[in-house]
Design a protein that fits this description.
mainly alpha
Length: 165
């Protein structure tokens, strides 16, 4: 199974693009600012180079992890890793080749990746956001503004990676 790393790394731009739209004042930016208690002055005070640099790094980390969530065939590769006698090129192993020839393209659609994106948002992002928001004494509105962003982001990342990576 060859992974298209150009597609994987390109999807790291999705959180930035969706964030620019989702948190724009004309969309949900004002609602987010009100729910989080952030002012325009506070937003202007940050070091944007560091904020965007770290955000891109985190987006790359997400993009690198999503193939393991949406591409089931990666489990076959990881299952055989480190086995004695398995060559560096798994396709030269007859067992791996048989399994990949039979199942290598199953569930490799945008729709399937988008489904796993929704699951990731609901079962990973929501609990993390919810726990953090409760301890920060944030409202449900705050949680759902962020959750909406992560649902869209993970749906697009999961769908694109599953279909084309």
């Amino acid at each position: 199974m060859e992974t298209n790393y150009a597609i994987v790394f390109s999807t790291a731009l999705i959180p930035m693009i969706i964030g620019a739209i989702w948190y724009h004042p004309a969309v949900l930016g004002k609602a987010w600012m009100a729910a989080s208690g952030v002012t325009d002055e506070q937003l202007k005070g940050g070091n944007m180079a560091i904020i965007f640099g770290v955000s891109i790094l985190f987006s790359l980390m997400l993009a690198a992890m999503i193939p393991m969530l949406v591409i089931h065939q990666s489990g076959l590769v990881s299952m055989m890793m480190g086995e004695p006698g398995i060559p560096a090129d798994p396709m030269s192993n007859p067992d791996y080749k048989f399994m990949f020839d039979k199942y290598g393209h199953n569930f490799r659609t945008f729709k399937h990746g988008a489904f796993h994106g929704i699951l990731s948002a609901v079962f990973f992002a929501l609990p993390v956001l919810g726990i953090q928001a409760m301890f920060e004494r944030r409202s449900g509105k705050y949680i759902f503004i962020h959750l909406g962003y992560w649902v869209i982001t993970f749906v697009l990342m999961g769908g694109i990676i599953c279909q084309w990576a």
